[in-house]
Protein backbone atom coordinates (compact mmCIF):
# COMPACT_ATOMS: atom_id res chain seq x y z
CA UNK A 1 0.00 0.00 0.00
CA UNK A 2 1.39 3.42 -0.96
CA UNK A 3 1.30 6.04 1.77
CA UNK A 4 0.02 9.55 1.27
CA UNK A 5 0.93 12.74 3.06
CA UNK A 6 -2.31 12.47 5.02
CA UNK A 7 -1.32 8.96 6.17
CA UNK A 8 2.05 10.27 7.41
CA UNK A 9 0.38 13.17 9.24
CA UNK A 10 -2.09 10.77 10.86
CA UNK A 11 0.80 8.53 11.95
CA UNK A 12 2.51 11.53 13.55
CA UNK A 13 -0.70 12.47 15.42
CA UNK A 14 -1.05 8.92 16.75
CA UNK A 15 2.61 8.82 17.76
CA UNK A 16 2.30 12.15 19.57
CA UNK A 17 -0.97 11.19 21.28
CA UNK A 18 0.33 7.81 22.44
CA UNK A 19 3.77 8.98 23.52
CA UNK A 20 4.51 8.93 27.23
CA UNK A 21 6.98 11.79 26.75
CA UNK A 22 6.07 15.37 25.91
CA UNK A 23 6.39 14.99 22.16
CA UNK A 24 5.62 18.00 19.99
CA UNK A 25 3.77 17.54 16.72
CA UNK A 26 6.81 18.82 14.82
CA UNK A 27 9.06 16.22 16.46
CA UNK A 28 6.51 13.47 15.73
CA UNK A 29 6.47 14.53 12.05
CA UNK A 30 10.27 14.29 11.93
CA UNK A 31 10.23 10.81 13.50
CA UNK A 32 7.61 9.56 11.03
CA UNK A 33 9.57 11.01 8.10
CA UNK A 34 12.69 9.11 9.18
CA UNK A 35 10.68 5.92 9.70
CA UNK A 36 9.48 6.24 6.11
CA UNK A 37 13.06 6.60 4.88
CA UNK A 38 13.16 10.36 4.33
CA UNK A 39 15.87 12.70 5.60
CA UNK A 40 13.33 15.01 7.30
CA UNK A 41 9.70 16.10 7.27
CA UNK A 42 10.22 18.72 4.56
CA UNK A 43 11.59 16.06 2.21
CA UNK A 44 8.77 13.65 3.07
CA UNK A 45 6.06 16.27 2.54
CA UNK A 46 7.57 17.23 -0.82
CA UNK A 47 7.72 13.64 -2.05
CA UNK A 48 4.64 11.98 -0.60
CA UNK A 49 1.51 12.42 -2.71
CA UNK A 50 -1.26 14.43 -1.03
CA UNK A 51 -3.86 11.93 -2.21
CA UNK A 52 -4.68 9.75 -5.18
CA UNK A 53 -7.75 10.68 -7.15
CA UNK A 54 -11.01 10.72 -5.29
CA UNK A 55 -10.67 9.79 -1.64
CA UNK A 56 -12.99 7.51 0.30
CA UNK A 57 -16.19 9.21 1.43
CA UNK A 58 -16.73 9.96 5.11
CA UNK A 59 -20.31 9.33 6.20
CA UNK A 60 -21.85 11.86 8.59
CA UNK A 61 -24.29 10.49 11.14
CA UNK A 62 -26.49 12.75 13.21
CA UNK A 63 -25.87 12.52 16.94
CA UNK A 64 -28.33 13.85 19.48
CA UNK A 65 -26.63 13.07 22.80
CA UNK A 66 -22.86 13.28 23.32
CA UNK A 67 -22.71 10.89 26.28
CA UNK A 68 -24.69 8.17 24.50
CA UNK A 69 -22.67 8.66 21.32
CA UNK A 70 -19.40 8.21 23.22
CA UNK A 71 -20.73 5.15 25.03
CA UNK A 72 -21.81 3.51 21.76
CA UNK A 73 -18.99 4.50 19.40
CA UNK A 74 -16.01 4.65 21.78
CA UNK A 75 -16.85 2.13 24.51
CA UNK A 76 -18.84 -0.39 22.46
CA UNK A 77 -17.60 -0.18 18.88
CA UNK A 78 -14.06 0.79 19.95
CA UNK A 79 -13.63 3.76 17.63
CA UNK A 80 -10.91 6.27 18.40
CA UNK A 81 -11.47 10.02 18.27
CA UNK A 82 -9.36 11.65 15.55
CA UNK A 83 -10.55 15.14 16.41
CA UNK A 84 -13.43 17.10 17.88
CA UNK A 85 -14.75 20.56 17.09
CA UNK A 86 -17.04 22.98 18.92
CA UNK A 87 -17.56 26.62 18.17
CA UNK A 88 -16.36 28.97 20.89
CA UNK A 89 -19.73 29.90 22.30
CA UNK A 90 -21.36 28.28 25.35
CA UNK A 91 -23.47 25.20 24.83
CA UNK A 92 -21.84 24.61 21.43
CA UNK A 93 -22.74 21.42 19.63
CA UNK A 94 -20.15 18.74 18.94
CA UNK A 95 -18.77 17.58 15.60
CA UNK A 96 -16.24 14.77 15.83
CA UNK A 97 -14.34 12.44 13.55
CA UNK A 98 -14.00 8.81 14.60
CA UNK A 99 -11.81 6.06 13.18
CA UNK A 100 -11.51 2.36 13.60
CA UNK A 101 -8.96 0.80 11.27
CA UNK A 102 -9.90 2.17 7.82
CA UNK A 103 -13.51 3.02 8.77
CA UNK A 104 -13.84 6.79 9.24
CA UNK A 105 -17.11 8.26 10.48
CA UNK A 106 -18.17 11.78 11.44
CA UNK A 107 -20.77 12.39 14.16
CA UNK A 108 -22.51 15.72 14.22
CA UNK A 109 -24.93 17.40 16.59
CA UNK A 110 -25.43 20.20 14.05
CA UNK A 111 -28.97 20.49 12.73
CA UNK A 112 -28.96 19.48 9.07
CA UNK A 113 -25.81 17.33 9.26
CA UNK A 114 -26.86 13.79 8.60
CA UNK A 115 -30.33 12.39 9.04
CA UNK A 116 -31.20 10.06 11.93
CA UNK A 117 -32.02 6.68 10.46
CA UNK A 118 -29.20 6.65 7.89
CA UNK A 119 -27.33 3.46 6.99
CA UNK A 120 -23.73 2.74 6.04
CA UNK A 121 -22.39 -0.57 4.72
CA UNK A 122 -18.89 -1.50 5.93
CA UNK A 123 -16.82 -4.41 4.61
CA UNK A 124 -14.94 -6.37 7.31
CA UNK A 125 -12.43 -9.19 7.18
CA UNK A 126 -14.02 -11.41 9.85
CA UNK A 127 -17.54 -10.57 10.98
CA UNK A 128 -17.58 -13.47 13.48
CA UNK A 129 -14.50 -12.11 15.28
CA UNK A 130 -16.04 -8.61 15.36
CA UNK A 131 -19.28 -10.11 16.69
CA UNK A 132 -17.41 -11.84 19.56
CA UNK A 133 -15.44 -8.66 20.32
CA UNK A 134 -18.60 -6.54 20.57
CA UNK A 135 -20.38 -9.07 22.79
CA UNK A 136 -17.36 -9.10 25.13
CA UNK A 137 -17.72 -5.35 25.80
CA UNK A 138 -20.73 -5.92 28.05
CA UNK A 139 -22.76 -3.21 26.29
CA UNK A 140 -26.28 -4.26 27.23
CA UNK A 141 -28.25 -2.04 24.83
CA UNK A 142 -27.27 -4.02 21.73
CA UNK A 143 -27.23 -7.75 21.03
CA UNK A 144 -26.62 -8.12 17.30
CA UNK A 145 -26.60 -11.41 15.48
CA UNK A 146 -25.06 -12.39 12.17
CA UNK A 147 -27.25 -12.90 9.13
CA UNK A 148 -25.36 -15.62 7.26
CA UNK A 149 -27.25 -15.44 3.98
CA UNK A 150 -27.15 -11.69 3.32
CA UNK A 151 -26.64 -10.75 -0.36
CA UNK A 152 -23.15 -9.28 0.19
CA UNK A 153 -21.98 -11.97 2.62
CA UNK A 154 -22.46 -12.66 6.33
CA UNK A 155 -23.66 -9.39 7.89
CA UNK A 156 -23.97 -8.03 11.41
CA UNK A 157 -26.12 -4.95 11.84
CA UNK A 158 -25.82 -2.50 14.75
CA UNK A 159 -28.08 0.48 15.35
CA UNK A 160 -26.76 3.49 17.24
CA UNK A 161 -28.81 5.41 19.84
CA UNK A 162 -29.99 7.80 17.09
CA UNK A 163 -31.40 5.11 14.76
CA UNK A 164 -28.39 5.11 12.40
CA UNK A 165 -27.46 1.66 11.14
CA UNK A 166 -24.03 0.21 10.46
CA UNK A 167 -23.98 -3.02 8.47
CA UNK A 168 -20.68 -4.88 8.92
CA UNK A 169 -20.41 -7.33 6.05
CA UNK A 170 -17.79 -10.02 5.48
CA UNK A 171 -17.28 -9.88 1.76
CA UNK A 172 -16.48 -13.17 0.05
CA UNK A 173 -13.00 -13.17 -1.46
Automatic annotation (TrEMBL):
It holds the Pfam family Glyoxalase_8. It comes from the Bacteria. The keyword Cytoplasm does not apply. Coiled coil: none annotated. GO terms for biological process: response to antibiotic. InterPro entries: Bleomycin-R (IPR000335), Glyas_Bleomycin-R_OHBP_Dase (IPR029068), Glyoxalase_8 (IPR045517), VOC_core (IPR037523). The keyword Protein transport does not apply. Residues 53-171 form the VOC domain. Keywords: Antibiotic resistance. Belongs to the bleomycin resistance protein family. This is Bleomycin resistance protein.
Amino acid sequence: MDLTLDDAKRAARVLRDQSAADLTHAKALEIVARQLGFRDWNTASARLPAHRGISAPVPVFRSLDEARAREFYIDYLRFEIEWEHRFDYAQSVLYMRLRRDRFVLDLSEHHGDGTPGSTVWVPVGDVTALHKELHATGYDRMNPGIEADSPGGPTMEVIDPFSNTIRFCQVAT
